[in-house]
Each structure stands twice: as C-alpha cells, then as structure tokens.
Amino acid sequence: MGEPSAHNTAAGPTRRDFLSTAGRTATAAAAASLSGTLLSGRSTPRVHAAGSDEIRVALIGCGGRGGGAAADALSVPGAPLKVVAMADVFADRVKIVKRSLTEQFKERIDVPDEDPLVGLEAYRQAVDCLRPGDIAIFATPPAFRAVHFAHAIEKGVHSFM
C-alpha cells in the first residue's frame, strides 16, 4: 500500500475539503449573480431595514468594550448607521461613552440627553427604540446576555455580542 494522501477519501471529507468546496460554491454563486446583473443592465437591489437606508443602533453596556464596539461600527465607511439609544446600569457610563462617540461621530449620534436609559431593565427600553432589522450591540457581562438576546429576538432586531 502507498502513502496516505492529503485527502483521505476512506475517512470521509476533511474540514479543508468542506471549506474549499464551500468557498468555490459561494464564489460561483456570486459570479453568476454578478454576470446576470451585468448582462441585464440592472444593479442588485439593496435591502435595508424598514425600507430606509438608515440602520438604527442601540448600545447596551457602555463600558470600554461597548464604546469601542460602537466606535468600530460607526467607523465603517458608507455604513448608514445612527446610534439612537444607549443603556447601562450606571448613568455616568452612558454620559462618558455618549460624549466620546459624539466627539468622533457627531452627526451619527441621536441619543436624547434627558432621561438616560439606566438600570437593569434599561436594555428593554433601548431595544424598544429599534425597528425590526436594526442592530443592538450587547456589551454587557455574558451572564445578562441571554435575557437581552431573547428580547431582541422578540423584536426582530439583529444582535452583536
């Protein structure tokens, strides 16, 4: 018998085989879609939350990780994001992160100054500010995220944790 080959078919497909096939399939599908678009002279239709280009974002958990995640999201060129709600257990954390984000992304922060969303139930109010298809960034301790995620699912909101 010879040396075992890199792709041992007796043991079934490897993870490398799977990823290679999946990559080729995704590339072929994208190419087919693009060529159909180019041949027809149409552009691929864009799909946005609630028929608008604006995607609303709620930040739940305004510590360093939350502020960094929101800044990273807002830094994506051309992304039509606007932060509309910020929630945390501590009011000073909301104020600090809001001030920092407003300095960097003034036109993309639309969080009211009055009545900050503070407390253990503030995540509900933040998620309730969103429409289906918008984004909730959960930067809270992992022990709280299951409850937060369940509420986001009920509301049809995308989640980043």
| Major beta-sheet overview | 5 strands, parallel
Fourth CATH level, the homologous superfamily of the largest domain: NAD(P)-binding Rossmann-like Domain
Which architecture name of the largest domain does CATH use? Answer: 3-Layer(aba) Sandwich
Structural class: alpha/beta
Properties at a glance:
45% helix; 5 strands; alpha/beta; 161 residues; globular; Rossmann fold; 5-stranded parallel β-sheet; 5 helices
What does this structure look like?
The protein contains five helices and five strands. It has 161 residues and is an alpha/beta fold. It folds into two domains: 30 residues; 112 residues, Rossmann fold, CATH 3.40.50. Helix 3 links the parallel strand 2 and strand 3. The longest helix is centred in the N-terminal third of the chain and has 26 residues. It starts with 14 loop residues before the first helix and ends with a strand. About 11% of the residues have low confidence.
Mind sketching the topology for me?
Elements lengths: L14 H26 L14 E6 L3 H11 L6 E8 L2 H14 L12 E2 L3 H7 L6 E4 L3 H14 L2 E3 L1
Parallel strand pairs: 1-2, 1-4, 2-3, 4-5
Helix pairs in contact: 2-3, 4-5
Write a compact overview of the structure shown.
The chain is of the alpha/beta class. 45% of the residues lie in helices and 14% in strands. It has a 5-stranded parallel sheet, with helices on both faces.
